[in-house]
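pinned: reference chain
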Amino acid sequence: MKQASAKKGFTLAEVLIVLGVIGIVAALTIPTLLKNWQEERWKTASKVFENRLTEAVGQMHARGRLTVYTTTEAFVDELKNFMRMIEVCQNDNLSSCFVSEVLDDITPISTNTLSTAQSFSKSWGTNIIGLKLANGANVFIAYNPSCTLDPAATGEEVSKCSVAALYDTNGDSSPNKLTKDVNLFNAELSSFKCEGTLLPEGICVGDSVGGCINTCDGSEFISYDPSGSGMVFCSRNCWAGVKKACADKGMRLPTSAELLIMTQHDDILHLAPYNWASEENSPNYFANILNYGTIGRMYKDIGYGARCVKTP
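pinned: its structure tokens
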């Protein structure tokens, strides 16, 4: 009778060797992975903060509320309406809104010494104000009081209008180090001006435009012939014509989301029943349109118009 062969498994020594190798590899790679992940988190948080501050300053300018402030305190008092703040710390109590020390390489910098905008390499000489934001970031901020904001100002006159900010994206948490979670940012004021109707949401709405253009290159069909001859009317693209008319004005077609916001202000805009939106719809002979207050789609050859928009 043939004896059954015994099944061979891993010995304890072999299992321990494998686990040891896995542990070594993990010890070598995991710290690097965690470091790269943290670096990306800081970069993302920094970009979010800088975009938000720039947007807030632009919104203030667009609504005519970035006027001549003689102090940072006065500027911040208005900025509260555009950024979610949970605490404001005056110049004599900055430590309540920021860590006491920030590392520059290995040298600690006492934040108690950052009392004026001159600490930000600015010659404004205005007080710094500390802010704690709802998203967990801590900010030191200073406003340029020499900003005149003449309605006709352009170029250098406009560039004087800026805000300096030293911000910590993760609040009091470590490492509190420059170029890591702590960064310096200058929010320059753009030359955004609204020649139309400026909505509270910051959308500048222009007058109605219309018109159709020829987009026929043999590849685009924008409608359908119900008689059965197939896709036709590539020479009559009204959606593209309106889009071009907006671009010629330095504006653009509104998105569907912006159109829905515009309907909330119809008492001042008096929108037409149909307004083209910026998004094309599948297949490519359709585009989105505002249809009596709701978003639908329409053949591009239909001769409707739109209200052009722009934002800061």
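why pinned: The mean pLDDT is 81. The CA atoms of residues 127 and 141 lie 9 Å apart.
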